[in-house]
Design a protein that fits this description.
The chain is α+β, with helices and mostly antiparallel strands and about 290 residues long. It has a 4-stranded antiparallel beta sheet, with helices on both faces. Strands 4-5 form a two-stranded antiparallel sheet. α3 runs antiparallel to α4. The longest helix has about 45 residues. The protein is rod-shaped and about 135 Å long.
Length: about 290
């Protein structure tokens, strides 16, 4: 289409604002020069010679006519403005995209002060949990002394002269469990063993891999009954042994293989811990007489 042709360029002239300022003489001179170059007589071997020369004449006719040239200049101006606006829009779009990408990068960057506060809160929480664990362990060790008044009131005169001689080890059960699944507390052990009789005391000792404790039953019969029946949670069964068995010890866990049973010396922990707890129990009984 003729409207898509740059008529200034067809005559070898500069286009745009510079072309609109060209004089009629400059246009005539350019046309004569281009006509000599593209005349079909000078291009006998060019099959497109006639068509090209016709286009040249059309462009010259548009530029020679004052009204047609003004319309053509207006058309070129509108196109230039369109290209300029498009460039501006592209520039704004690129800036918007750049700003968006920058905001996204900033959103994923952790602020150092925020990271420090989070780290401080995490460490404080861990410390709080550790202090609670230490207090819990301390409370378990001192349970015997704290329950002394209730124990004395309950036992009354039942122990007679035998109380002064020390704690009956046949009433004491050694309990151990793995640190998997649900853990056991002194209160939980008391609830389990009270199903077989009165429980006088519960002392717990825990480590990272294994939990253990001593349960003092009110009578030897209660201790024997508990030894043969206590299982605890199936997901984390208890291993129960008498501290001083009258005969052979009974080990009852959730279908545990005899080959897999832990050694007796390792079920509760260090021997020193057991002796220390028993010694405290003996001193508590001795002070009553």
């Amino acid at each position: 289409m003729d409207v898509e042709v740059d008529h200034y360029d067809a005559l070898g002239l500069p286009s745009g604002e510079e072309g609109s300022r060209l004089s009629e003489q400059e246009i005539n001179k350019a046309y004569r020069s281009k006509a000599r170059e593209l005349h079909p007589d000078k291009r006998p071997d060019d099959p497109n010679a006639n068509a090209n020369f016709q286009k040249l004449q059309t462009s010259y006719s548009v530029l020679k006519d004052e009204t047609a040239r003004k319309l053509f200049d207006d058309l070129l101006r509108v196109k230039r403005e369109k290209i300029y606006r498009r460039g501006q829009q592209d520039s704004k779009r690129r800036k918007m995209m750049s700003d968006l990408e920058e905001r996204e990068r900033t959103a994923f960057v952790v602020d150092p002060s925020t990271e420090a506060r989070q780290e401080e809160a995490r460490i404080a929480c861990q410390l709080k949990e550790e202090i609670a664990r230490i207090k819990k362990m301390s409370a378990g060790v001192t349970t015997f002394e704290q329950d002394k008044p209730a124990r004395e009131k309950k036992e009354g005169g039942d122990s007679g002269d035998s109380g002064a001689s020390g704690l009956d080890k046949e009433k004491v059960l050694k309990v151990s469990w793995e640190k998997i699944g649900e853990d056991y507390t002194a209160q939980r052990l008391r609830e389990i063993f009270e199903e077989f009789g009165d429980v006088e005391d519960v002392v717990i000792k825990s480590s990272k891999k294994k939990g253990s404790g001593l349960v003092v039953m009110a009578s030897k019969d209660d201790a024997v009954a508990a030894t043969g029946n206590v299982l605890g949670n199936l997901s984390n069964p208890l291993t129960v042994l008498p501290l001083q068995p009258a005969s052979s010890p009974v080990v009852f866990t959730a279908e545990i293989n005899e080959l897999d049973r832990p050694e007796l010396s390792n079920l509760v922990g260090a021997e020193a811990f057991e002796n220390s707890v028993l010694e405290k129990m003996k001193r508590g009984l001795s002070r009553r007489f």
